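The passage that follows is intended for readers who have already worked through the single-chain material. We present the inputs for a multi-component assembly, then the predicted structure in tokenized form, and finally a short commentary. You are encouraged to pause after the input and sketch how you expect the pieces to fit together before reading on.
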Amino acid sequence: MDYVYGPGRNHLFVPGPVNIPEPVIRAMNRNNEDYRAPAIPALTKTLLEDVKKLFKTTTGTPFIIPTTGTGAWESALTNTLSPGDTIVSFLIGQFSLLWIDQQQRLKFKVDVIESEWGQGANLDELASKLAADRTHTIKAVCIVHNETATGVTNNLAAVRKLLDDYNHPALLLVDGVSSICALDFRMDEWGIDVALTGSQKALSMPTGMGFICASPKALEASKTAQSARVFFDWNDYLKFYKIGTYWPYTPSIQMLYGLRAALDLIFEEGLDNVIARHSRLGKATRLAVEAWGLKNCTQKEEWHSDTVTAVVVPPYIDSSEIVRRAWKRYNLSLGLGLNKVAGKVFRIGHLGNLNELQLLGCLSGVEMVLKDVGYPVKLGSGVAAAATYLQNSTPMIPSRI
Amino acid sequence: MDYVYGPGRNHLFVPGPVNIPEPVIRAMNRNNEDYRAPAIPALTKTLLEDVKKLFKTTTGTPFIIPTTGTGAWESALTNTLSPGDTIVSFLIGQFSLLWIDQQQRLKFKVDVIESEWGQGANLDELASKLAADRTHTIKAVCIVHNETATGVTNNLAAVRKLLDDYNHPALLLVDGVSSICALDFRMDEWGIDVALTGSQKALSMPTGMGFICASPKALEASKTAQSARVFFDWNDYLKFYKIGTYWPYTPSIQMLYGLRAALDLIFEEGLDNVIARHSRLGKATRLAVEAWGLKNCTQKEEWHSDTVTAVVVPPYIDSSEIVRRAWKRYNLSLGLGLNKVAGKVFRIGHLGNLNELQLLGCLSGVEMVLKDVGYPVKLGSGVAAAATYLQNSTPMIPSRI
Amino acid sequence: MDYVYGPGRNHLFVPGPVNIPEPVIRAMNRNNEDYRAPAIPALTKTLLEDVKKLFKTTTGTPFIIPTTGTGAWESALTNTLSPGDTIVSFLIGQFSLLWIDQQQRLKFKVDVIESEWGQGANLDELASKLAADRTHTIKAVCIVHNETATGVTNNLAAVRKLLDDYNHPALLLVDGVSSICALDFRMDEWGIDVALTGSQKALSMPTGMGFICASPKALEASKTAQSARVFFDWNDYLKFYKIGTYWPYTPSIQMLYGLRAALDLIFEEGLDNVIARHSRLGKATRLAVEAWGLKNCTQKEEWHSDTVTAVVVPPYIDSSEIVRRAWKRYNLSLGLGLNKVAGKVFRIGHLGNLNELQLLGCLSGVEMVLKDVGYPVKLGSGVAAAATYLQNSTPMIPSRI
Amino acid sequence: MDYVYGPGRNHLFVPGPVNIPEPVIRAMNRNNEDYRAPAIPALTKTLLEDVKKLFKTTTGTPFIIPTTGTGAWESALTNTLSPGDTIVSFLIGQFSLLWIDQQQRLKFKVDVIESEWGQGANLDELASKLAADRTHTIKAVCIVHNETATGVTNNLAAVRKLLDDYNHPALLLVDGVSSICALDFRMDEWGIDVALTGSQKALSMPTGMGFICASPKALEASKTAQSARVFFDWNDYLKFYKIGTYWPYTPSIQMLYGLRAALDLIFEEGLDNVIARHSRLGKATRLAVEAWGLKNCTQKEEWHSDTVTAVVVPPYIDSSEIVRRAWKRYNLSLGLGLNKVAGKVFRIGHLGNLNELQLLGCLSGVEMVLKDVGYPVKLGSGVAAAATYLQNSTPMIPSRI
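Having made your guess, compare it with the prediction:
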């Protein structure tokens, strides 16, 4: 039943699903419970309160939906928009592409602003569109905060500023799947109307929970949005929030307790420390890539992602072979290049509950694989570059001082 | 973190989520994995094949969607129907009511056939409607196989027969949430077009997986159905089935391994033995209710459910008090009466991975609670009636002979 | 790998190993750790303090040894006595017999006071021996508090009183394996010099930890005791207690965390409530036995055990067949009759983390098995008797009021 | 309850307890069971057969005792020897010292052959003693195969050869705690009379099982050995082997299933592949130490251990500070220097279920710590040396080819 088991731990460095810490695995190790008995609502209440902290919102309303990121996207769109509504959406990689595909299939009119893969959102083009949209036909701007396929982080504050500059009332809908709880994310300060993420990313849980926060404006929009929806309907949740039982249908008991444990770990470390750790590991990874003489898929430093690094391989190498070999020889799981960058990049996910030595083990593995496939890397070079930075910047573990 | 823990095991007799067997809990006790590596598709392939056996279909196409029963409903409807389509739908209790509500909100024209709660689907009325529908405006007949709120099992073979008698092409969509894998269910033989269930019911897993099987006819319908959908879209699944990677988005690794273990247990026992066990426990429960001098909410024997028994309490007792007290004093979780029967019935769920002595423990608890709330029950009477039947009918555990 | 798995839960009613509560299973679900890092000594310190509370001692010194009850016995004897020393030891059943066998093989001179199996320790004979022992050649009195084979609880306070009456300095060594943490046990008040138990009994953990508490007098004796010992030597532990690292050799990390969880549960319920619960379940069991028209192996009420009931079967029935059949047909695990009472009694263990409905499920199973093997029991009779008592005496679960 | 938790995985590189693979953790995640029911003897039978394979013996008799390595030592000695018997015992480090201490306290006459810590057993001196012992007063030769404190592996074949050369009938008792299942070990071929190990070492389980194999000659000796013993007495086990119930007292159900899983993993990988993996990781570690410019505590290559490397630090550094800092800053658990080498060496354990990237992560951590404490290491140097070797020598994971 365990298929293809190798000796030792699997080194999981795909940008999701990520490593689950032991206390979360433990918390989920349990039988079912009656979710209508008092324990589950009491637990849920703490979860909803605490999830808001991850989004840095006090005014938002959180929804924890038993679904994936794709479902969270659908929830964000169908609760705030009506078929035929115009959306401006940025296409910068595979996940923004998939979201746009969803937007179109849900029958919105999508005005796509495309960038080369490896670049961030083209904000100049957004500015033009906002400037031109005197009648406010644009109902929403959709943006992926961190494009997981290319390792590009967009500047959300700048998007907000443009909307404010043009005094444009469009809703700002943000995919924070590979950013929230790992990158600097400020829902209230940046005026985000809907933000969302999934449990298997920086929260370091199994897949199965979509987290959505809606601003008061988004909630208002949900009252009149005409998109057909039931499973994803916020109003059903709000009805049960009022009653105090919280769930319009059966939640996963295990995931609820797992979330409690995940949140406890995050708050024990401190959310800002979690974000600083991601920044540290992201920088260390980029230093290794540089030391290997390879190019980061992300074209400018301002877009560098601290949760995933897409590494461009030389044209004579198939990046899929790197991923295959890493898994087959070193029990190392790396991310494939997707769609336009298939075969051209491989990805190192460095998000979630992860520490310095885990990353260095991964980097040493990448080096060996690079050599395996014929790239003339100097073994130890990337590790040395990363370790030099980490040895200077890693703090003591607070609970152990 | 464990809230309200009591000494000893919780006796979980709500009709879902139900008890998870240890081997399933064990199988799920694991870290995440890269779902794009070869192990997960290999595992998924066995799951899809084996899930079909639960539905007794060879021609159906299975979908395992990371959602709940409510999501599975939505998937069944949106993949086969277009807004404005006419549906005939039976209203016989809270869950059929909720499904009808969903059907209406998804913008289908729902022709509701209502029965008194406690009765099964009114098939005479269906016959009239089919007879009258010469132009075949009815696109689908929707029916809940086992209404969990009242403990009523509908006769699916009879529904099929009516459709055949009238040579009516309407799709037959069946909610098998509290029936599949517990009651006699024959997708192919009964000509069911879409059947569905959820993981936390007779499969005895955590909540989080909706299982849907679509007949070739339903699959054909999905090609032209105009309901907007992405997360629930079968076509996205089919695309990845063809590629052999199976998943349009990230599945829960833990639930996949859990499902493998759950299926292994079911096939080890034998699906027909599983169904026979439910029949045995259902009958034993009804004998106890009779011995207590209480009425079954189900009005005729033909509708008796082998997965849940709704027990009507005398008018001077509030059934919610029974549920509350069972939990607070005896660590026994019973099902509340819902909506129209709130306060009037309490429910004993007897589905999933459950055995005779667990049920007898529950029945002895119900007796004590009945006495607690002032009903003049003879302690031991229900247990005696149930045990007399069980002592005659329980087979040896095959692996132990 | 799971061998002989049956549907539903196993009903575990042997008098050890007993059911482990989920929070303990969860706490043990973990990787190894460096036991020399600060976390483990910090944890151990809390455990040693809290274990003393189970023994109701403030002056005793606790030892948690990675062994079983048999090892704990050996530790008690070899640390306090020298080969050739005279012991008075009571033989009342299989476990006292095994301890005496150990005492003899460890080369002590054992003066055995034998009772019929089903009777308690013969204290009159002890009185005579103490009276006659003017020169204090008796170095220790060894007694099993609760004889697990016959369900007999001895009166420790009375033993203490005799020693005091005769002003006899013999050490009082007590096997509390099936009593401590379940029956009234007062190490300090009853002047017990060494008391011991094992993790798989009332503490409701896996097997693997022996708990020993030594009085100051026993500790003093350990300084001069000449029995050869290393693994079981208290002095090695004391050396590491002083250093603050606590362990002379590698402990089981999992068992340490499991013990923490077990103790937390016990203190959450309240030790006195735990004991009251055992008293309640013991009495309920005896009422059932009476209702079945069967005899308790324990011959007088004063010896009735609240942790295990040995039920005498009619001569025409082989009690082993009852145990076999309970397991094979009802997934119910009962205790065999051992040695002298093999075939004549079966045992119902009712100790550890157990509640009323679990017991009633077990009793209903016993009834069915009795009928299976040809005993003319009235099904439901025992459950009715037990439930009548329990419905009157069971308190609300404090955390749920 | 989790004390001092840090982000990410703990990097556990003490030479025991070692990392437990997920399938073993999973297998142990279970409730207790009646160990007298048929499942446990059936399971035990497979375990006893398979444990022999780890020792490479077909003629030996295995004992699985719920104890630690210290208890296994005691079992080996007390079952084969009588108080006053003469033993020759090698003292080469802390663990051989502790065994000798035990031998003395168990009242054997111990003739100690001491070497400098960092050297192997002085076989010349053994030769002299055997030559001189015409009357065969030496009853046993006791040797630690792999001294965990110094990382020294002794040559057991050479010891056997000496005994044969002098035709000496002394029993050969071997501590294989940090060797069996990791180093080349051949009980039958090398004529070992008693060999032993513990579960938390190369078997990669929790602490709590001592494994002992006795040759026919050792078994014969146990019939007349006069050392007092009960808990550790092989004869009690043999009695229950004959009956087919196997256990003289309650085993840990969890450990039995864990052992089954551990053995399955070892045989799936192939025992010889497991040993080759240890050889590979051992060599890689030594290459790193060399690259750092540090000395291996082991003085000659012939004694190099493939399960633990003791690294000598420069005199101006306290090795304990390295261990402390590794844990506090990098969540890396290294082994302390013990006794004579306290403060002078730190130890890297590389045994058990471990792979290449885990080791490289550890080595990168050691480099950072070395720099932290003021040793002028070139970051990346050790990793480079190790990786260069590993990239050449690591095989594909067989199940993934």
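Commentary: Chain C is about 40% helix and 15% strand. The interface with chain A takes residues 22, 25-27, 29-31, 38, 400 of chain C (CB under 8 Å). How closely did your sketch match?
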